[in-house]
Amino acid sequence: MAMTTTADSIVPLKFTAACSDGSDPSALENYCEDGDGWQSTKGATFPQTLTLKLNDKNNAPIHSLEILSHESFVPSKVDIDLGIGNATTFEECSVSHLGYITFNKSDGESRELKAIPLEGKVSADYIRFTFHGCHEAPQQNPHNQVGICAIRILAQETNLDVVPIATEIDIPLPTKGQKKSINSLPLAIKNDLDPKIASSVDRLE
C-alpha cells in the first residue's frame, strides 16, 4: 500500500531495543519483515521483556503498532506497557498498561502480523513487551524460545525523528503464509477510536 509524502504521512519511528535475558534485539531497529529479528536465549525463564526506547523527542502520538512473530518461536500472550516521562530507563517512567495480544500456534512456516490501531490517542517514551510464554512445539522450538521478526511504531510524519522516507515508504501487506489480525485494546481507547475500527476490534476478539 503506497503512502504519500505529505506532512500528514504515516511513518515509522526510530527506536533502540533492549532485552531482559541479555540477548541482542538490535536487528529489530531496522525493519525487515523477511529477517530473523530477535529470539530469546535458549531455555530462558518467563516472563521475558523486550523494551523499546523511542528516539522521537517530540513525543508524537502513535498511530499504530505492527508486530510480526517468528514462524517457529511463537509467543503465546504478550502484555504491552507504555513508559511516559523523560527518564533514562523504563523503570523510572510513569507506566500505563495498553493491553495485550496473543499469537496463534504456527505451522512452522507462517509468520503472524498483529496490527494494533491507536489512531494517535496515545504517546510514549518507551514501549515494553512482556512475554509470558511460548507455544510448545518440540520439533520447531525445542528450547522454548520466543521470537519477534519485526516491529514497527507508526506515527504522523510532522517534525518527527523518523526512519528515512526513501527506505520506509510502504507498509507491506501480509505475504503468502502470513496472517494479519487485530487484538484486544483497553475499552477507553476503543471508545475513542473510529467506530469502524472499534467494531473490527470487537469482531476479532
Describe this structure in words.
The protein is mainly beta and 205 residues long. The chain is 7% helix and 35% strand. It has two helices and eleven strands, in the order βββββββββββαα. It has helices at 187-190, 195-204; strands at 10-12, 15-19, 38-39, 48-54, 62-69, 77-84, 94-102, 112-122, 126-131, 147-156, 179-181. Strands 1, 3, 5, 8, 10 and 11 form a six-stranded mixed β-sheet that branches. The longest helix is centred in the C-terminal third of the chain and has 10 residues, at 195-204. The relative contact order is 0.26.
Layout of helices and strands:
Layout: E1 10-12, E2 15-19, E3 38-39, E4 48-54, E5 62-69, E6 77-84, E7 94-102, E8 112-122, E9 126-131, E10 147-156, E11 179-181, H1 187-190, H2 195-204
Parallel strand pairs: 8-11
Antiparallel strand pairs: 1-10, 2-4, 3-10, 4-9, 5-8, 5-10, 6-7, 6-9
Brief write-up:
The chain is mostly beta strands.
Total number of strands = 11
Largest sheet, in brief, is:
6 strands, mixed
Principal-axis shape equals: globular
Q: Gyration radius, to the nearest Å?
A: 16 Å
Strand percentage lies at: 35-45%
Overall pLDDT score: 79
Number of helices: 2
What descriptors fit this protein?
mainly beta, 2 helices, disordered N terminus, 6-stranded mixed β-sheet, 205 residues
